[in-house]
Amino acid sequence: MMKLSLILALLSVSGGSGLRVTSVSGQDVTLTCKYDIKTNTARPVCWGRGDIPSSGCNNQLIASDGSQVTFGGGASSRYRFLGRLQDGDVSLTVLNVSETDAGRYGCRVDIYGWFNDEAHHIDLSVERAPQTTRSTAAVSGGSGLRVTSVSGQDVTLTCKYDIKTNTARPVCWGRGDIPSSGCNNQLIASDGSQVTFGGGASSRYRFLGRLQDGDVSLTVLNVSETDAGRYGCRVDIYGWFNDETHHIDLSVERAPQTTRSTAAGMDGSRTFLLVLLCAGFGVLAALTVVFIVANRPRRKNSDPQVYSQVWFRGGSPGEESHLRGGEGGGGEFRSTVLYSYRV
Questions:
Q1: pLDDT for 212-246, tens place per residue?
Q2: What is the pLDDT of residues 304-315, one digit of tens each?
Q3: Distance in angstroms (rounded) separating the CA atoms of residues 160 and 97
Q4: Which residue from 80, 144, 200, 259 has the least number of CB within 10 angstroms?
């Protein structure tokens, strides 16, 4: 049993493949975790800090049974499920991320059957944000932020303004530097309540924050390497030269292959290895029993056992009589007893 437990520990996902995400303090960052809800139906999921254990999540932050959301004891309300749970999107969004949020996060999706859980861990790095600036006529040379994500994830590029002071304001997002007015290659925009998309812009660009709170951050769903580059956000503030502008440089890295775990999502090859090891232990145990039985000490029995008794006539041992009192001439009969010792 100890050997089997050790094998399970060695095959756990604590050393499995993971993703790396870099964000900037003050932004919202999304750590992606999705599963095939059409195949598996709605399943329980949890997010925690640190490596993924053999069951559940370490230092649980947030969880869902497939429809309802619960928070770990003492976990901050900054942890949110902003994706569509009904589509299997259980990505974790950390609002207003700070440098203390850096570290490893683990996502576990409880899939039916042994060793079928899907598990992912993501290493989050958080950099200190530079001071943002207002523009005069353009911010092409202004300060900017840098975000690194991994292909296949959802990434959030943060842009917020003080809606209490300015009331709801028009905003736009585009690709490239921010021009003197509007946004280059506009992707998405809002007048403060309604959302519009730029001509030909992908539906992967979303406002998932609360517009009514001044959160006009751009989320790019299922990001790919072609999404890398500069993005610009402009908030139209009353008055001359008062627009709030931000540009963010997005880097997208190729994602490593994700894996299943033992008690946390083991893949087919690891399952086969575990079965093979169990079968090997069974054969070894059987051979051990056979060896012990075959080499068990034997007790010798020195009591002689009569094997046969043969009668001879007239002192001539070579002349065998069929019966002790059988036919033939006179003479003396002798008997010879042959002994065998049972070992």
A1: 888 888 989 888 999 999 999 999 988 888 888 88
A2: 554 455 554 554
A3: 14
A4: 200
**d(C-alpha 218, C-alpha 155), whole Å:** 8
Q: Which residue has the tokens 């003080």?
A: 162
Same domain for 196 and 329: no
**Do 223 and 317 lie in a common domain?**
no
Looking at the fold, whether 125 and 248 belong to one and the same domain comes out as yes
Per-residue tokens: 25: 């303090």
Among 215, 249, 265, the domain boundary falls at 265
The verdict on 201 and 317 lying in the same domain is: no
What are the strands of the beta sheet with 92-94, ordered from one edge? 29-31, 92-94, 79-80
Burial group, residue 261, by CB count within 10 angstroms (0-12, 13-18, 19+)? buried
Helices 2-10 and 268-294 pack at an angle, to 10 degrees, of: 160
- Which of 147, 119, 114 lies closest to 45, judged by CA? 119
- Other beta carbons within 10 Å of 333: 15
Q: How far is CA 211 from CA 2, 171, 303, 309, in A?
A: 56, 10, 103, 114
3-state secondary structure of 183: coil
pLDDT of 260 > 90? The answer is no
Count of structural domains within the chain: 2
- The CATH number of the domain holding residue 77 is 2.60.40.10
Task: State both tokens at 76.
Answer: 């901050």
Same domain, 142 and 83: yes
Q: Report pLDDT digits (tens) over 174-187.
A: 999 888 888 988 99
CA separation for the pair 10, 302 (Å, rounded): 57
Q: Does pTM top 0.70 for this prediction? A: no
325 and 191 share one domain? no
Domain that holds residue 325: 304-341
Claim to verify: residue 258 and residue 333 sit in the same structural domain: no
